[in-house]
């Protein structure tokens, strides 16, 4: 929770080109006969019925035949998310509609919602005029908005589950859901921070609550869960949390971040990691900081990915550097996996934390150059 | 290039006619680059030369020493870093910003390539001196990460364990070190901070040490300073003016067997914590007997003046040796060590206080030499065994470094010959 992101007036109100947000409520209109492309996701496979499509809105119908919760992504180069569905439950098919210009993509399922996923090539053919540099920047805004939408959908679902567990007095379940719900929050923090007053209500830590403000939100419940274990009086706090999250989700989905805000957001997410997560300050009672750490990095990567087409044109060397640095962070972080989640912060040695700090510094330095490269 | 000080036209041009240090500098020999001593504390020291600056350069008042571990596995990455570091070091020692754009001349959307805290400050005699640790050539696990194992100089042996060592591994050793010395602490810190930033992703800071009040003179133009025990330190130090002695005791030579180190020197760093509370309640007579010099003048006991030739056979009033057999000055003196000399360049440190309410203070010992196996190691063995001073000091960190020869010009870089 920090300052508002600056919104330079000149950069607001960019016209979006070509891409539209997508949701399951949209009509299916694939460029081809035969309806949506069937995707069968299991715990160990990801079968995409067709590996190609014509340019335009492409629809997928994903069925989870495994036992783990799954995710489905369509990635452009550099893991730019063109469309995704999270929280695909076994036996509950979902549809995804993605606007895809001609090009080469990857389809990916993520059983257990972790790792790089099971990937396969997906080719889109057709003709489209190459975008100008300015169009690419405008697209970044739309592309990131799509990402925000996917995250806020999941944030709502998981926060509601968390809140219900708290109100039901189910400490174990609430503890398990706490870091998961926060993941979606931490990925889109640059957007959340724009709504300054809501951020501390949802994510304020005891020491940053300003005078005259109550200590509420995720961390208040975290404290009760992990210190006293008594959440019997937390019902109203949980209700308020859900209300606040709903409000911020509505606002976030309506918000268009300028390319410069995206660039700065990518850097600030890493600053969050460096100052709050590596130190263990964020989740001081639960020690689930690595969930937030991973989410911040994923969010940073998503913001950079949205800018990627413009960045590749303006500063290809920087893109190469960023790819390598992201890879290093991911590899280093992956050492601390525990099941579908992460080790607790207090299970890491000082040397392991220092190593994480080093790789974040190595990534944050080139990321701090992105804003200058796209201005 | 943005100059921090517009008035500074040519870095390293000494101020002609300046008294003292500059005059002494003019008679230096065998010291190449560092013969350019600064006329005033604000001036620049020439970065380029036969030897690295910061060794025989008249010791500046302030230190920021840092040890790095290399985290990149890529030799080309490491070489690129050394090139970038060298370029930044050349700029900063001349009083310029670390990067080519500068602290305040870039675009608003990008972070500056210099951190800015030295804006408006003169070069302040900044020197930056690099050293390579044994672990750069081969890790403790025996891994040759950069194809350098075969190029490790024999003289760069890990130091043996000495009696009484209380070393903390986390502040000992390291793959690379940089010694920043300047007459303004802000200038020294600025240099290390910017080099560390350039190194993100390739190196990680292992430890660093601030120091003040140089504890040795490295030029006859300088008065002998005092360490935190209150005694003059470094009276018999090797000095910049000792041309032949420097050739013999300080600079590595081709004949020593490592071509790339010719003109370089080996550095030993030791963080020596002083238990000053107990020292301070030790009687004056006892303090002087332990050191072997009087506290006021710094004269060897039984002698009149600081620089008197020491006669170790001289008897005191009680008929025993004037300078006790276990006095620090006797044990450390070249005469008692087969003529071995070191160029000491240490600094006092006070790192706040400890949990017991004691000042965390002492001496960050820095000594340059031609071969530690023949110089520092035997002297320290003798001291560790017999020096009464050991009751009041603890060696908390230790490292040994190969400091390559000087950078000859803008096309050269730190350690180029090692990677050639």
From TrEMBL, chain A:
Q: Where is it mainly found?
A: periplasm
Q: Which InterPro entries match?
A: EfeM/EfeO_iron_uptake, EfeO_Cupredoxin, Imelysin-like, Imelysin-like_EfeO/Algp7, Imelysin_sf, Iron_uptake_EfeM/EfeO
Subcellular locations according to the entry: Periplasm
Q: Which UniProt keywords apply?
A: Signal
The chain positions of domain Imelysin-like read 140-370
Signal peptide start and end residues = 1-20
- The EfeO-type cupredoxin-like domain covers 33-124
Highest taxon of source: Bacteria
Family of the protein in this entry = Belongs to the EfeM/EfeO family.
This one is known as: Iron uptake system protein EfeO
Q: Which organism is it from?
A: Hamadaea flava
Automatic annotation (TrEMBL), chain B:
* Domain Dyp-type peroxidase C-terminal positions: 224-407
Keyword field? Heme, Iron, Lyase, Metal-binding, Oxidoreductase, Peroxidase, Signal
Catalyses which reaction? heme b + 2 H(+) = protoporphyrin IX + Fe(2+)
Any idea where this protein resides?
Cell envelope
The record's listing under SUPFAM superfamilies reads: Dimeric alpha+beta barrel
| Keyword set includes Repressor | no
Q: Which family does it belong to?
A: Belongs to the DyP-type peroxidase family.
Q: Which organism is it from?
A: Hamadaea flava
Cofactor: record remark? Binds 1 heme b (iron(II)-protoporphyrin IX) group non-covalently per subunit.
The cofactor(s) it depends on are: heme b
Which residue ranges does the record assign to the Dyp-type peroxidase N-terminal domain? 52-212
Listed name of the protein = Deferrochelatase
Task: Tell me the leader sequence span.
Answer: 1-24
> What is the protein's known function?
Involved in the recovery of exogenous heme iron. Extracts iron from heme while preserving the protoporphyrin ring intact.
Q: Does the keyword Lyase apply?
A: yes
Task: Tell me which EC number(s) this protein carries.
Answer: 1.11.1.-
């Amino acid at each position: 929770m920090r300052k508002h992101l600056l919104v330079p007036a000149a950069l607001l109100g960019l016209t979006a080109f070509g891409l539209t947000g997508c949701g399951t409520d949209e009509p299916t209109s694939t460029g081809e006969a035969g309806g949506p492309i069937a995707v069968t996701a299991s715990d160990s496979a990801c079968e995409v019925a067709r590996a190609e499509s014509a340019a335009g809105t492409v629809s997928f119908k994903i069925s989870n035949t495994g036992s783990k919760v799954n995710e489905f992504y369509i990635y452009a180069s550099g893991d730019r998310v063109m469309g995704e569905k999270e929280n695909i439950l076994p036996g509950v098919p979902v549809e995804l509609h993605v606007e895809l210009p001609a090009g080469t993509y990857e389809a990916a399922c993520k059983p257990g919602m972790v790792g790089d996923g099971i990937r396969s090539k997906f080719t889109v053919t057709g003709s489209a005029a190459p975008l100008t540099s300015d169009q690419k920047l405008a697209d970044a805004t739309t592309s990131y908005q799509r990402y925000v939408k996917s995250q806020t959908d999941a944030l709502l679902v998981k926060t509601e589950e968390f809140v219900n567990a708290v109100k039901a007095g189910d400490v174990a379940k609430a503890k398990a859901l706490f870091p998961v719900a926060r993941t979606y929050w931490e990925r889109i923090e640059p957007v959340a921070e724009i709504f300054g007053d809501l951020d501390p209500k949802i994510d304020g830590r005891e020491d940053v609550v300003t005078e005259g403000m109550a200590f509420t939100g995720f961390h208040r419940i975290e404290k009760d869960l992990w210190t006293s274990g008594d959440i019997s009086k937390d019902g109203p706090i949980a209700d308020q949390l859900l209300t606040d999250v709903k409000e911020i989700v509505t606002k976030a989905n309506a918000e268009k971040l300028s390319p410069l805000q995206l660039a700065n957001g990518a850097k600030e997410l890493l600053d969050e990691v460096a100052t709050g997560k590596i130190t263990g300050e964020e989740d001081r009672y639960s020690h689930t900081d690595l969930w937030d750490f991973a989410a911040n990095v994923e969010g940073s990567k998503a913001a950079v990915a949205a800018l990627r087409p413009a960045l590749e044109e303006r500063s290809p060397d920087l893109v190469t550097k960023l790819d390598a640095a992201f890879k290093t962070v991911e590899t280093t972080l992956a050492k601390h996996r525990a099941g579908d989640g992460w080790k607790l912060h207090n299970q890491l040695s000082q040397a392991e934390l220092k190593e994480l700090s080093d790789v974040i510094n190595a990534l944050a330095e080139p990321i701090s150059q992105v804003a200058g490269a796209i201005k | 290039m943005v100059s921090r000080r517009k008035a500074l036209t040519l870095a390293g041009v000494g101020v002609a006619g300046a008294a003292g240090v500059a005059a002494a500098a003019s008679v230096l020999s065998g010291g190449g680059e560092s013969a350019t001593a600064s006329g005033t504390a604000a001036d620049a020291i020439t970065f380029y030369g036969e030897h690295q600056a910061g060794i025989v350069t008249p010791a500046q008042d302030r230190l920021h020493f840092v040890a790095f571990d290399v985290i990149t596995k890529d030799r080309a990455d490491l070489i690129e870093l050394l090139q970038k570091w060298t370029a930044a070091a050349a700029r900063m020692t001349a009083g310029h910003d670390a990067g080519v754009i500068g602290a305040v001349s870039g675009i608003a959307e990008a972070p500056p390539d210099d951190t800015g805290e030295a804006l408006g400050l003169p070069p302040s005699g900044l020197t930056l001196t690099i050293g390579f640790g044994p672990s750069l050539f081969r890790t403790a696990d025996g891994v040759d990460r950069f194809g350098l194992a075969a190029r490790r100089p024999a003289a760069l042996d890990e130091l043996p364990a000495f009696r009484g060592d209380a070393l903390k591994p986390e502040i000992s050793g390291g793959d690379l070190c940089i010694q920043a010395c300047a007459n303004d602490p802000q200038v020294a810190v600025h240099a290390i901070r910017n080099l560390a930033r350039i190194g993100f992703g390739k190196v990680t800071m292992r430890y660093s040490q601030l120091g003040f009040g140089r504890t040795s003179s490295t030029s006859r133009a300088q008065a002998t300073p005092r360490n935190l025990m209150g005694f003059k330190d470094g009276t018999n130090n090797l000095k910049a003016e000792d041309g032949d002695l420097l050739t013999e005791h300080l600079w590595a030579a081709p004949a020593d067997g490592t071509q790339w180190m010719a003109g370089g020197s080996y550095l030993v760093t030791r963080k020596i914590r002083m238990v000053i509370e107990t020292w301070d309640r030790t009687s004056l007579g006892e303090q002087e007997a332990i050191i072997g010099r009087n506290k006021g003048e710094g004269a060897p006991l039984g002698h009149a003046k600081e620089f008197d030739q020491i006669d170790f056979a001289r008897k005191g009033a009680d008929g025993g040796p004037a300078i006790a057999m276990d006095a620090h000055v006797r044990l450390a003196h070249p005469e008692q060590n087969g003529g071995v000399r070191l160029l000491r360049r240490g600094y006092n440190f006070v790192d706040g206080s400890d949990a017991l309410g004691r000042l965390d203070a002492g001496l960050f010992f820095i000594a340059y030499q031609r071969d530690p196996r023949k110089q520092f190691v035997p002297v320290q063995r003798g001291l560790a065994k017999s020096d009464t001073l050991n009751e009041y000091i603890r060696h908390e960190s230790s490292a040994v470094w190969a400091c390559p020869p000087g950078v000859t010009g803008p096309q050269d870089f730190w350690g180029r010959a090692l990677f050639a």
